[in-house]
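Morning F.,

Quick status update on the modeling queue. The single chain you submitted on Monday has been processed. Sequence for confirmation:
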Amino acid sequence: MRSAKLDQVCAAAVDLARAAITEVDAAEIGAHLDVVAEGERLVTHYFACEMPGYRGWRWAVTVTRVSRSKHVTVCETVLLPGP
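Structure tokens below.
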């Protein structure tokens, strides 16, 4: 099985991904840590979590776009334990 290719339009949507985390105050969302290709035109952005009690956790925001479009949409946001 081959790895998914990183979609550059979705990968560039860091600000959109950060803005999608609405569960907490913006100050509790840390640095952009990584972007990972999940499938065709589907990527997950990872951000550090700065909430007290969640040291090492990270926010994950998955975004996508339709073929030939530059419009990126948010699929989901979730808070995950770190590696």
